[in-house]
UniProtKB/TrEMBL annotation, chain A:
Coiled coil: none annotated. Belongs to the ABC transporter superfamily. Gene3D superfamilies: P-loop containing nucleotide triphosphate hydrolases. Signal peptide: none annotated. This is ABC transporter ATP-binding protein. Pfam families: ABC_tran. GO terms for molecular function: ATP binding. It comes from Streptomyces humicola. Keywords: ATP-binding, Cell membrane, Membrane, Nucleotide-binding, Transport. Residues 4-249 form the ABC transporter domain.
Length: 283, 328
């Protein structure tokens, strides 16, 4: 069953920059869709558009979640879905946490925003979630403030917060980019386990082909706001058709296999073009 | 007899930890705890490890941005921490650094030309080649000299950082996570550039990174750090073919492979728990609290780094046997 269906999504900012340009996506309930691309490819903007978090941009196209078109919804209706049925974890956990409140309180607050629960019950949920994302001594750490956590720990707190309401869809925007590899392995295991246990679908946004290879069922490769390739993960990895996909797969230095003398490079990486040329303005 | 380009012996760095309004001394964090390294001209020493393992502190110690608690650092035979201000300035010509964040390491108010001539100004030298040549060497265009850092992309800004490090024609460049802030396709370009420059100028690198793929691509020799200590040091191919320390194994097996079948089929060693607090490190082996092989002796006795094969040293009471398939 299709949980999320995006048709012809375009996002244009006031500056005239079109970050997403006619994107189609489809995500089944309980599945993992990998969205891969480099900076400026529009992958994060896509996730913000799905969440209705781009009030200043012109968002056109259709975003259907569980049969309901999100583009037409007002803020009140969106708020009932956000955090509750669609949760999101961002790249930078520190900017997502309030420095003035203990993390346990913040998780409990997110929980109480959508569930009828007392403080005590919500606090227990928070402690259980902190434990589940691998924070040692969760009881004690729930009372600690964001600045007392390492970068990796803060991202775990964010994941605990996102998962406490058992959403249908988790949008994970570079969830492990800030984490150490051994911690990343734990978090990827955790996401995999969550998906198996609760059937939460995951839209996994990342630049890391390895993360996609391990977790995703389907993958969309984005370049300059468009999907240049899409398909089942094995199809895309073993028989890539698009030159950009091929380049992206080849240029990653690997820990296994033969060691190339030089890494193959892409002809026109997104980032290099970006700032010195005049930005492409779409009328 | 030629001294090695860089020789680090039993390096220790403790940072005081202070608490409360009175800044009462609460204890010390041992960020680097007895590290020894050696780098020969033209080679790349990769330093890998996770956050908090002390790899960046090592970088700052080597470049004398901070002073060690004990231990020695010798650059071309000269002991770095015995030099006075004037002498250290001459050594710095041979010893440069590239930083992780290309933007915060470039002054936003200065043009690229000013940034690239600054090393000569501080050294009291006349630039021996035009800025334009320097830019071309790192793959930028001559007209970029008049621009400001914000006009560049991350990859280009990192190239400026590299050009600045190379301006004085150093012998050793300490690179602290030079590619981790960059997109994968840009990473590949920067890694290739570093390699080309190394071949051209016979540079030596200390390449500090958490990305094992990048470290493998560029290093001739690799040390793996954990909680301030070196747990394994080996030639590049030996390390990736038969890692001997359980932590190295876990680290290698944690790197996701961009290959769905291989990635899903392999046995991953997932380390339980987290890095112990460096304020209160474990007795004995620093890795024992997360080690799948930990035994009594690991609590009692800290294993010393010992040679187990040519070019491969490991600090473990129970290193992996070399004959068994050790490939990740």
């Amino acid at each position: 069953m299709t949980l999320l269906s995006v048709r012809g999504l375009s996002v244009e900012f006031r500056s005239g920059v079109r970050a997403v340009d006619g994107l189609d996506l489809e995500l089944d309930a309980g599945a993992v869709l990998g969205v891969v691309g480099e900076s400026g490819s529009g992958k994060s903007v896509t996730s913000l558009a799905v969440m209705g978090l781009l009030p200043d941009a012109r968002v056109t196209g259709e975003i259907r979640f569980a049969g309901q078109d999100l583009t037409g919804l007002g803020q009140r209706a969106l708020r009932r879905i956000r955090g509750n049925r669609i949760a999101m974890i961002f790249q930078d956990p520190l900017s997502c946490l309030n420095p003035y409140y203990p993390v346990g309180f913040q998780i409990a607050e997110a929980y109480r925003a959508h569930r009828r629960a007392g403080r005590r019950e919500a606090h227990h949920v928070a402690v259980r979630m902190l434990d589940e994302v691998g924070i040692p001594e969760p009881d004690r750490r729930a009372r600690a403030y964001p600045h007392e956590f390492s970068g990796g720990m803060r991202q775990r707190v964010m994941i605990a917060m996102a998962l406490c309401l058992e959403p249908d869809l988790l949008i994970a925007d570079e969830p492990t980019t800030a984490l150490d590899v051994t911690v990343q392995a734990q978090i990827l295991d955790l996401l995999q386990g969550l998906r198996e246990r609760s059937g939460t679908a995951i839209m996994l946004i990342t630049h890391d082909m390895g993360v996609i290879a391990g977790l995703a069922d389907d993958v969309v490769v984005m370049y300059r706001g468009r999907a240049v390739e899409r398909g089942a993960v094995r199809e895309v990895f073993y028989r890539p058709r698009d030159a950009y996909t091929k380049g992206l797969l080849a240029c990653v230095p690997r820990v296994d296999g033969a060691l190339p003398l030089r890494l193959p490079t892409l002809q026109a990486p997104v980032e290099e073009q970006a700032s010195l040329e005049t930005p492409e303005v779409t009328p | 007899m030629n001294a090695p380009l860089l020789e680090v012996q039993d390096l220790v760095k403790r940072f005081p930890v202070r608490h409360g309004l009175t800044r009462r001394l609460a204890g010390y964090v041992t960020a680097v705890d007895g590290v020894s390294l050696r780098v020969e001209p033209g080679e790349t020493l990769g330093v890998v490890g996770e956050s908090g393992c002390g790899k960046s502190t090592v970088a700052r110690l080597i470049t004398r941005l901070i002073e060690p608690t004990s231990g020695t650092i010798r650059v071309a035979g000269r002991e770095l921490h015995k030099l006075d201000e004037a002498a250290i300035r001459t050594v710095r010509r041979d010893l440069q650094m590239i930083f992780q964040d290309p933007f915060s390491s470039l002054n936003p108010r200065k043009t690229v030309r000013q940034i690239l001539t600054a090393p000569f100004r501080y050294q009291g030298l006349a630039p021996d080649e035009p800025v334009e040549h320097l830019l071309e060497r790192v793959g930028l265009r001559p007209e970029h000299a008049a621009r400001y850092p914000h006009e560049f992309s991350g990859g280009q800004a990192q190239r400026i950082g590299i050009a600045r490090a190379l301006a004085l024609r150093p012998k050793l460049v300490v690179c602290d996570e030079p590619v981790s802030a960059l997109d994968v396709s840009v990473q590949a370009q920067i890694l290739n550039l570093l390699k080309d420059l190394q071949d051209e100028y016979r540079l030596a690198y200390v390449f500090i990174a958490h990305d094992l793929g990048a470290v493998r691509q560029i290093s001739t020799r690799i040390v793996v750090m954990y909680l301030g200590t070196v747990v394994e040091a080996a030639d590049r191919d030996a390390l990736f073919a038969h890692a001997a320390h359980p932590y190295t194994h876990a680290l290698l097996s944690a790197v996701p492979l961009p290959d769905p079948d291989a990635e899903r089929a392999r046995e991953r060693i997932v380390l339980r728990g987290d890095l112990p607090s460096p304020l209160n490190p474990p007795t004995g082996c620093p890795f024992r609290t997360r080690c799948p092989k930990a035994a009594e002796i690991c609590t009692a006795e800290r294993p010393a780094l010992r040679l187990i094969a040519p070019g491969q040293e490991v600090a473990c009471h129970f290193p992996e046997p070399l004959t068994v398939e050790g490939t990740p």
